[in-house]
Amino acid sequence: MMRFNDKTAYIPGGSSGIGLAIAKKLYSGGADVVIFSRNEDRLVKATNHIKDGVDEGGKIEYRQLDVSSFEDVKKVMEETVTKVGVPDILVNCAGRSYPGYFEDISYEQLDETMKINFYGVWNASAVLFPKMKSKGGHIINVSSMAGFIGVFGFTDYAASKFAVIGFSEALRSEGKKFGLKVSVLCPADTDTPAFEIENKNKPPETKAVSEAANLFTPEEIADALCKKIGSNTFLIIPGFMPKLTYHLKRLAPGLVEFIMDRIIRGVQK
Ligand SMILES: NC(=O)c1ccc[n+]([C@@H]2O[C@H](COP(=O)([O-])OP(=O)(O)OC[C@H]3O[C@@H](n4cnc5c(N)ncnc54)[C@H](OP(=O)(O)O)[C@@H]3O)[C@@H](O)[C@H]2O)c1
User: Fold this and answer.
1) Is the Cβ–Cβ distance between 65 and 73 less than 8 Å?
2) How much is the pTM?
3) pLDDT (tens digit per residue) in 184-221
4) CB 84 less than 6 A from any atom of ligand 1
5) 67 lines ligand 1 (CB under 6 A)
6) Active-site annotation holder among 24, 25, 115, 161
7) Active-site residue 157, yes or no?
8) Domains and CATH numbers, the chain
9) How far, in Å, CA of 171 to CA of 181, rounded?
């Protein structure tokens, strides 16, 4: 059992899926946890789920906010810091994906995707970085494998998740002087409520690429992440095959493209 006693963790996107599994793992390890998201019913259910079956957890609270609104994030997070304290761990996990052919993706969808997946990460970091730097800590921004491979059907999503990695690498460099670590979590496909919805809308080519890879559980992703909290690892990529894919993409990008093209052509025939 990993222990996080005396740590405070903030998790935007902690009411469902990967964020919820991370919240439960940190809480079970003794951390005080605050989860943030929009829907209050889901926040209440998530809070009960996090406490369920845990005897020696820390404290758990929730707050409603929309990560895409800087004003909202600033107001809610500053109130939370006053009440709960500056976090030692910030996991920016709120996000969404609506796959589709590029020509079917509206400007409004692009705008929303960027505002939630990228601006959301920026907003929480902008409010908390100045506070966290006085005591050190760890900011973990959730990207995706689609943050280092542009996958068919994910044009807006990939743009937002590539942005998360570039932002995090630059912020990591600035955080070093203060002992504040910054990492990125890049999960492969994970069995969450969002993934279920995503599957209903995937173009067949995207589905075929996705089915060629393993599906992870949110608990496996949370486990891999929690082992790296406090470490200097920048890219946290859970699972052997996703890690291998990352290295292949760097060392032999043509090979990764060739494999994906073959899968895609198989569907388009
Ligand atoms: N599942 C996968 O296969 C997969 C793979 C790679 C990366 N990821 C990334 O992992 C993260 C979590 O995904 P998931 O699959 O666990 O999704 P999920 O089950 O739908 O959970 C998403 C969480 O984000 C919150 N959220 C969404 N929009 C928000 C907003 N505007 N403001 C505040 N909170 C918001 C949701 O709550 P409300 O809707 O109530 O606000 C929920 O708590 C995302 O960043 C996703 O891109 C997922």
Assistant:
1) yes
2) 0.97
3) 999 999 999 999 999 998 999 999 999 999 999 999 99
4) no
5) yes
6) 161
7) yes
8) 8-268 (3.40.50.720)
9) 9
